[in-house]
Amino acid sequence: MLGRDMALITCSITQTGIGLLGNLTLLTVYIRIFISRPQQKKSTDVILTQLTVINSVTLLSQGVPIMMFLFDVENSLGNFGCQIMVYTRRVTRALTICTTCLLSVFQAITISPSTSRWAQLKYQAPKCILPSFLFFWILHLFLYANLWRTTVANKNINLTISKYNLKYCSSVFWMSYLADVAFLSAITLRDIFFVFFMTWASVYMVIVLHQHQKKVQHIHSTSLSPKSSAETRATQTILLLVIFFVSIYWINTSITLSLNFVEEDIKLTDTVSYLIICYPSLCPWMLIGSDPRVPKPQCFLRKVRDLSPPSPLSEGQQTSSSPCPLPTAVW
């Protein structure tokens, strides 16, 4: 194995591992809140839970061919195994854009002022979350059904790591011209639709935050309500996620178009491979860093220290030290 290939594999495995660790940590926190701490639940937790699950499945489906290449495993997936892996990867990536769009639109409605036309949707929006999930799943399960007939297992495995996405499985398009044109058109229209609404919601949230900042600029920060501050922090985090996602989406789209219509470049192909899992890898850490309900490392270490037998020298310090409880305020 070439040194360059080994470096690419190491980076991919590291990126996948970090992403899985963050998503599983976040998922554990959400499950704990749903079961034992319902008073800490906030309106976007259901959306973020689905996003976390989708991110985890995306990382797992992306990591399978990397691990197979690393351990030099022959292609034992077969056509059916390849179809499952490629189908799962494409569906979860599509659900990512839908869920992120739903998150941004939902937050825009949540922070809309009472004088806005969107304010009347505040009480109806939570009821639309689960039906939206159902619609997204049904839509994409049927939309990508053509992958079951176009995905095949590669029998001659002689591709480099730069092609690890195609090393064991490949999708053969243009088997039916009309069907493929309809499929690509549907994918393009879907992306334009959801990216447009994500952008609109982001611009609207920026305007609302700016107007809110102008209203409170003469008010001391200590007089601001905790709920208002929590909503501002949550909105800023969602804005960061949307900006990050849209930026990666357009970079990935530009590179993909260049590879398909200009020339094929190995380095650009590697870049696309990393961009695919960049968002699901970093997204949970953005949420963890801004969510006060997630225990921080220093609080975990303090709890471990408190569980240890106290020594005579540190007994007074342990008595005076304050614990790190999970906050009860909803942000």
From TrEMBL:
GO biological process: response to pheromone; sensory perception of chemical stimulus
Any one GO CC term of the record: plasma membrane
Annotated transmembrane regions: 7-35, 91-109, 129-147, 168-186, 192-209, 230-251
Lineage: superkingdom: Eukaryota
Cross-referenced InterPro entries: GPCR_Rhodpsn_7TM, Vmron_rcpt_1
Main localization of the protein described in the UniProt heading: membrane
A GO MF term: pheromone binding
SUPFAM superfamilies xref list: Family A G protein-coupled receptor-like
Biased amino acid composition, Polar residues: 314-323
Gene3D superfamilies the UniProt entry points to: Rhodopsin 7-helix transmembrane proteins
PANTHER family assigned: VOMERONASAL TYPE-1 RECEPTOR
Family: Belongs to the G-protein coupled receptor 1 family.
Entry function: Putative pheromone receptor.
Protein name: Vomeronasal type-1 receptor
Organism of derivation: Ornithorhynchus anatinus
